Amino acid sequence: MNTSFSCVGCGKCCNDHHVPLTLAEARMWAADGGAVIVLVEGFLDNGLGLPAAQREHAQRRSVVVPCGDTHAYVTITFAAFNAGRCRNLDEDNLCRIYERRPLVCRIYPMEINPHIPLTPSAKDCPPESWQQGPELIVGGQLVDRSLASLIEQSRQADRDDIQAKEGICAQLGICTTALKGDGFTAYLPDMAAFAAAMDRVQAEPLSGSVGQWQFHLSGTALADQVLAAGAQVTTEQPLTYAFIALQAA
Known about the structure:
- The longest helix has 28 residues.
- Strand 6 and strand 7 form a beta hairpin.
- The relative contact order is 0.21.
- The model has no long low-confidence stretch (mean pLDDT 92).
- The protein contains six helices and eleven strands.
- The strands form two sheets. Strands 2, 3, 4, 5, 8, 9, 10 and 11 form an eight-stranded mixed β-sheet that branches.
- The chain has one domain.
- By secondary structure, it is α+β, with helices and mostly antiparallel strands.
């Protein structure tokens, strides 16, 4: 199957999308006056919450943290908080920071996760975007070498940044994760505190996790499975974060 793509400048991809950021991009975003949302998901050694085929990719971008009597693999995403129109989109749907826009914006419409195929119908782009322009995918393979390089840069940043992200979370008191596939915990930290925590961690990197983590889960049956694995579960109403469920209620 071949896929072509050409941006038509509709601006839909710049509306209501939280854009994943590298550590350096998150610091820049905060310095520019933008808000950063912290999204957290995790899984356990027994594979709960993670298809076996996805384990290697997930482990490489996770940090191992203590959780009850066991440990969890936690993935932390810093993302540009775009509730509505991106703050950098002008009245003509042009990006004001185009030359230094985040990696994920440069990579769009391709996916970063190797286990998620590019599906035009799942994107916000209008049909004409997929009816013109250069070929992106030929015979199921990405043919744009520069785009492939950017995707690898993004994946490598996930791996390189994860320890620092966990340290920043520790500074901010972020220690509750959702189970991968069940949902995300979402934090909107004060940006001054976020920037200060980032500066402290980057000035003096931490070695290893500094505190216990716990899981927030969507239901009691899933909580029982996580508890049986020795992990810690919270049943308290969240005060500092929101739980974004992926499973149907």
